[in-house]
């Protein structure tokens, strides 16, 4: 756990969140500022800063991908988008790697 990391606080239970899925290696919870009717964040329980760090930890990466799949299954999502923002220029504001799972409306392309 990283000191002063919002998502580590959620993992530890010190910060409340609406949990959607919980496994040994990953946690999924509702985004507090949703950009779609369904907007869930999936994070590794281990603190990793961004997708580059996640790529260096195959176990954590597998847990996040499995968490994304579990969220889609549990919420019965037929179509959804998964996004990783890496770095402030891409919109990353919490520096604990997280996947956004977005669904519930048409998601145009290209994004943003």
UniProtKB/TrEMBL annotation:
Cited InterPro entries:
Histidine_triad_HIT, HIT-like, HIT-like_sf
Q: Which residues form the signal peptide?
A: none
Q: What is this protein called?
A: HIT domain-containing protein
Q: Tell me where the sequence motif Histidine triad motif sits in this chain.
A: 96-100
Record's PROSITE patterns? HIT_2
HIT domain location, by residue? Answer: 6-112
From which residue to which does any coiled coil extend? Answer: none
